[in-house]
């Protein structure tokens, strides 16, 4: 299989990117600054992320499109306002997650942003549900995120009036006479924006952002940023064997959809009523030891009670941090647990997420 | 002129009398990226040539640290455990890992000099 490149590949190269293959794409893991500096630049100033490998799917409105999508998404789309976005999932009947996604109600179509590794499977599920085999991921568009406290001012210098956007809301703007769509969102725990724009102008757009003071940031720092913010990485913290209830994401299931039928709804209702046996929690090792994915978790009596799904060193909290699934009986905050790293048991404590908290702009500080 | 010797596992060692000071090379730190965790052998323990004698972790992955020669650990550098970023900042100076009382000085003969190591590092990372 050919490794795919995004429209920004040459620009990454020019900025001394180290590349890694991710979901079939050659993506920058870091630039010359390195992961920790890039992480701090995003927290303290502003960072640019090329997330063009993610799938952008647009579905034009027709009579029953909203009802049909509600059959496969747990989100209240009927009351979604124009230009509003919601975090949602595609699920299996047994409640497992095929993918997590962001859906936005644009003026004349839905925009759905899908994970790169899942997008083809997602597309097939949606095509089948809508009975429309002509649907396709839009590969003429790039997706760029700008994140961090100075991003608003920097982006405002390139696209006027963008700072009026509220969190999880979007709008059409223009750049070099091309229509672009910007939402106030992101996946770093910082205030920021995601910009969907044609491939042919993305280099010039990102060049403008850099000249106004932002910096390219790789996937390595994206991972430490999202983990500090307590956000899930698909394929690690959530997958086909974890339900939104087990993943502690039931806030993303719209309250007025609880009595509806959608794929996975029966399992979810049952889990909400009867409880679950495992839950996703935050974990803080008491030392600097890093508990990577698959690290086993034990209780004080040496019973195995769970596994780590993501673990790293969090530069902004200056500590080792992890997330994982733990048996419900041990999932309370401050429960003492032990992580098995290189044959030794490292003491750790269950903790609340996120590890790092900043307030978002006006409102739903939930994602 | 340098008396520093190097291993294929990217450790360096300098000798002062019977005691060798060991660390990891600048080239190794560049490959690892930002180091965020270091674990060292216990003072008083004995380590065997090419055996594991510590761990470093970067934001990306964990890597074992090997000892290029055998001996008894007589001192460890606690400051790199407390602040592992020192390893990236000064790997071949202040951020040494541990000191060994050498068991057999002839083991040093199996190691590379600076010129040989630089060539090795360049070839293996190409």
How would you explain this protein's 3D organization?
The complex is a heterodimer of chains A (367) and B (126). Chain A is an alpha+beta fold. Among the domains of chain A are: 137 residues, Probable tRNA modification gtpase trme, domain 1 (Gyrase A, domain 2, 2-Layer Sandwich), CATH 3.30.1360.120; 91 residues, Beta Barrel (Elongation Factor Tu (Ef-tu), domain 3). Chain A has eight helices and 18 strands. In chain A, the strands form four sheets. Chain A has a six-stranded mixed beta sheet. In chain A, strands 13-16-15-14-17-18 form a six-stranded antiparallel barrel. Chain A has a four-stranded antiparallel beta sheet with strand order 4-7-6-5, with helices on one face. The longest helix of chain A has 13 residues. The C terminus of chain A is likely disordered. In chain B, 40% of the residues are buried. Chain B is α+β, with helices and mostly antiparallel strands and 126 residues long. Chain B is built from four helices and nine strands. Chains A and B meet through helix 2 of A and strand 4 and strand 6 of B.
CATH topology description of chain B: OB fold (Dihydrolipoamide Acetyltransferase, E2P)
Oligomeric state, counting identical vs distinct chains: heterodimer
CATH-defined architecture of the domain at 9-54 and 138-228 in chain A: 2-Layer Sandwich
Strand neighbour order, sheet with most strands of chain B: 1-2-3-9-8-5
CATH superfamily of the domain at 9-54 and 138-228 in chain A: Probable tRNA modification gtpase trme, domain 1
- Tell me, what is the CATH class of the domain at 9-54 and 138-228 in chain A? Alpha Beta
| Unreliable segments of 5+ consecutive residues of chain A | 363-367
Element-level helix/strand string of chain A: HEEHEEHEEEHEHEEEHEHHEEEEEE
The tally of helices of chain A reads 8
CATH third-level topology of the domain at 9-54 and 138-228 in chain A: Gyrase A, domain 2
Q: SS-based structural class of chain A? A: alpha+beta
Mean pLDDT of chain A: 95
N- and C-termini, Cα separation of chain A: 35 Å
**What percentage of amino acids of chain B are in beta strands?**
25-35%
